[in-house]
Amino acid sequence: MSTNHNITSANVQSEMAGLGRVVILGAGESGVGAAMLAQKQGFDVFVSDFGTIADKYKKALEDLGIVYESAQHTEELILNASEVIKSPGIPPTAPIIKKLVEKGISVISEIEFAKRYTHAKTVCITGSNGKSTTSLLTYHILKNAGLNVGLAGNIGHSFAAQVATESFDWYVLEISSFMLDDMFEFKADIAVLLNITPDHLDRYEYKIENYAASKMRIIQNQTENDVFIYCADDEETLNALRNVHPEARTYPFSIVKTVDQGAFLDENTIHILIETNNELTMSISDLALQGKHNIYNSMASGIVAKVLELRNDSIRESMGNFKNIEHRLEHVAKISGIDFINDSKATNVNSTWYALESMTSDVVLIMGGVDKGNDYNMLKDLVKQKVKAIVCLGKDNKRIHDAFEDDVEVIVNTFSAEEATQIAYHLAKRGDAVLLSPACASFDLFKNYEDRGNQFKAAVREL
Fold first, then answer.
1. Which residues does ATP bind (predicted)?
2. Domain check: are 299 and 355 in the same one?
């Protein structure tokens, strides 16, 4: 199906339909899902992607007879929209977005659009770190307890596609700050904010307060009938909460202090208390997810489960048998007594801090990529304690050298996953760990963090 043929068809369809025209910018998972739902609801649909559309998404659009273009944005076919649904990855500074805003055309996220067409309730999880793990754990707990639940958002299949084709009572949605920026009337029934640490500051004028304000949109439109769960140990979250006043019932979680309602840690036991429900207690040694950061993630999921009045034994079982996601502290192999760990999903400094914090052996750290305004200072103490060598994997590694040249004896530059893995293997000795935890985005050398992680795993298996 050629682009020219598509555009001609778009004009014909627009004239014939007489309905609202929905234009979708970006033809990835969320964009194609939004197109499916918009078509089902009777809109005239046009999909435009400034980049290349993956074959599987082209086929999905063609099978549905949805008109699309790739490698361009044809303005006359976009600026006549009733409403535009944009990919989270398109910044508000993109020229086409500026023109849409100037014309007063509504620009929203796929999540906002999909919520209009479902009565399902939502558990919405955001945070700079841990949101994928917590979303998957929460989904695992709810599904095992027998709830009719879907998983969507920044993870799994498109929310809009599931609204178009499924009939769930609940959704667990992983929500990024980019999604929140394009959500206006959307309301989370249960909102979870795990933490706020510097990330994506290039999208927020390099101001943490702008990024924090974006994260706090998770509680917009909530009422006293809704629930807000947050980390009482997170400084930026507490700062942000001084500027807003949640209407929802709030449940904090903490590992350093006791709370009346919510979750806290007493020695090695998690306590979760929600109003009159019977208290849930669980030893942290019984959690499937280990490490301090995962205590927080487990607490957040546990509060959701208790709010929904799930049985304690069911919650404990699910929190004890959960399997974590690919590319997040994923053990790849042990070769010559050296552990190889894939944490490619660590695309910011805080994620890498969590990874290093959980290491119990000396580390050869593979890091680098597209630097998003990173401040590496928070890593310095852990790097001094645990890291014997840094293998840089990226096109421009100057800032990593500058940050750690006084803390680590060996810092090496590499330009492929295979080269980085081989050098790290030679720098490590029996009992060490080789940890891929980049602290940076992957787009300089890889398609995405999954591609980076998969290439690393393939290189490990070739050793």
1. 127-133
2. no
